[in-house]
Write a structure and sequence with these properties.
This protein has 247 residues and is an alpha/beta fold. The chain is built from nine helices and six strands; from the N terminus they run E-H-E-H-H-H-H-E-H-E-H-H-E-H-E. It has a six-stranded mixed β-sheet with strand order 2-3-1-4-5-6, with helices on both faces. Bound molecules: 2'-deoxycytidine-5'-monophosphate (DC).
């Protein structure tokens, strides 16, 4: 049986990482935060004194990326975040990272039966055949507030207005770039988390997975339902914050 692929895309700090990790844990799937790939390229480039605007230098770093680089402790800082967004606009960088992502989805590590990938272009470019696609979004102000609180929580200095400006600049770069811009796949379900907490987003996502694939968390099977068969759930919005495919 082909591995199950769940594609989760969306802008920064919309809650897609938390959602992807939770879905992977409860459904026993592998998880790849694809932003880490771009962050690792950015961190290595900055460390070597390189310029994120230098397409050839960034592509060379991406081609030499090793799995261990994804575990670097310095990937979440604001300088790396901004540089990651810049390097991700270079076609050579994206091409170098595409194979790794597709291989992860096609042969999930540790013999897992599927994978959850989160990023910006999973549903549109990396895994366009994924049966489950979610586009997780929220207002820029809500996302900036979350990132600001996350930074303060880590003991870092943060000014909300700066975080908001940075986030809007990053959104614009991710959305307006020529290659694989941030946008929902036509068959993605939009989950707006501006007024939705993590539990409600998780419940809505699980309903979508069940509706599209018949997969439910172990122990939650309904009597008479056959694994692998689509459930009777309609996949209709559990809340007003969930919108169907944009087609
Ligand atoms: O999800 P994140 O904030 O960790 O991503 C960091 C940057 O990497 C983001 O600004 C855009 C880029 N990115 C991308 O272009 N494509 C992906 N699939 C994932 C991330």
């Amino acid at each position: 049986m082909a591995p199950l692929v769940i594609a989760i895309d969306g802008p920064a700090a919309a809650g897609k990482g938390t959602l992807a990790r939770r879905l992977a844990a409860v459904l026993d799937l592998a998880h790849l935060d694809t932003g880490q790939l771009y962050r690792a390229v950015a961190a290595l480039l900055l460390q070597a004194g390189g310029d994120p605007a230098d397409a050839a230098a960034a592509a060379a770093v991406a081609e030499a990326l090793r799995p261990a680089d994804l575990a670097r402790p310095d990937l979440r800082g604001e300088a790396v975040s901004a540089a990651a967004s810049e390097v991700s606009a270079h076609p050579g960088v994206r091409a170098a990272l595409l194979d790794f992502q597709r291989r992860f989805a096609a042969t999930p590590p540790e013999g897992r039966s599927g994978a959850v990938l989160d990023g910006r272009d999973i549903g549109t470019v990396v895994c366009p055949e994924a049966p489950v696609k979610l586009f997780v979004t929220a207002s820029p102000e809500a996302r900036a507030r979350r990132r600001h609180e996350e930074l303060l929580g880590r003991g870092e200095e943060s000014i909300y207005a700066h975080v908001l400006t940075e986030m809007q600049a990053r959104d614009a770069r991710d959305r307006d770039r020529a290659v694989a811009p941030l946008r929902p796949a036509t068959d993605a379900v939009i989950l707006d988390t501006t007024a939705l907490d993590a539990d409600a987003a998780f419940t809505a996502a699980l309903e979508l997975v069940a509706a599209r694939t018949g997969r439910v968390p172990p122990g939650k099977e309904k009597p008479g339902r056959h694994p692998g068969r689509p459930s009777e759930t309609t996949g209709r919005p559990a809340t007003d914050n969930v919108k169907g495919p944009t087609e």
